[in-house]
Write a structure and sequence with these properties.
Elements lengths: L30 H17 L7 H26 L4
């Protein structure tokens, strides 16, 4: 689960299209993000035929993919979902 913080106040001249996007903790230290990275890394390991010796490569690739997905979701939410 990705938690969202309050939006930052910026000078947008009252235009909601220019309002700041919500801040999301996309750090690998976030437990939810870490679980998603772990799941993705294990999937990469299985795709490789469960061959050992690539754990760091799998983790780093999973980290990149997961953080990219979270950032994309954040941008989508900021653009299409109204803030409550």
């Amino acid at each position: 689960m990705v938690t969202m913080k309050k939006t930052r106040k910026t000078k947008s001249n009252g235009d909601p299209e220019k309002a700041a996007a919500p801040v999301v903790n996309v750090s690998a230290r976030n437990p939810d993000i870490q679980d998603a990275i772990r799941f993705c890394a294990y999937g990469l390991y299985e795709q490789r035929g469960r061959k050992h010796g690539h754990d760091l490569d799998d983790w780093l690739q999973a980290e990149r993919e997961t953080i990219t997905q979270v950032k994309t979701a954040r941008r989508f939410a900021a653009k299409y979902l109204p803030l409550a």
